[in-house]
Amino acid sequence: MDTKSNPKFVFNILLLCLFLKSHSHISLAADTISADKSLSGDQTIISAGGVFELGFFKPGIFSNYYYIGMWYKKVSVKTIVWVANRETPVSDIFTSVLRISDGNLILFSESNTPVWSTNLTSTTTSGSVQAVLLDSGNLVLRADGSSTNTSEPLWQSFDHPAHTWIPGGKLGFNIATNRTQILTSWKSSEDPAPGLFSLELDPNGSSAYLILWNTSRVYWSSGAWDANSRIFSAVP
Q1: Total-model pTM
Q2: What is the C-alpha separation between 171 and 161, in angstroms, rounded?
Q3: Over pLDDT 90: what percentage of the chain?
Q4: Which fold, 3-157?
């Protein structure tokens, strides 16, 4: 068959190309956002071992808003494990951009307004900072050229958990950052803003984990930690 003179064949090829383009994400083929490499639109970054992916996503079916989130790369159903701008979504991912600016990782909206930031006050210049997505699911901001294994990050998402506790993550009180690390549910499947339920370490020092309703009422308690039996007293 002479494909060059077969208009039906050529038309079908064009339709296939358009379908693939509309159903695919564009990966930056890297795990890093640097001073000269931002993230926008359908672009994503993928951890070195292909475990996690980070980019824009739209929750649910009816939402018109987009968020920067992290999900398992190899799970067929997109499972979001971390969201950056939970309370400040954007409307257009092609004019919004996640980039390094003023020594921070910052999400700028379609109006070029910063809506989320790692919020560091250090004097590190933008050219010497990069954000790296690790196979552990930790997004770290570090000085360019430093080792992710040996250097303490300038900022890391493990210190700012959202709604999912993944291996390696921490829940408790971070003395270095003076910040309590808690998990907070989504408002709904269409809205990842903080909901009514949260999981945190008992601030009164009982070493129990508590699920709170509306940040105040204890909904569930693990009971205190029994070091001898290596269990929480209220957990079967």
Answers
A1: 0.82
A2: 8
A3: 66
A4: Agglutinin, subunit A (2.90.10)
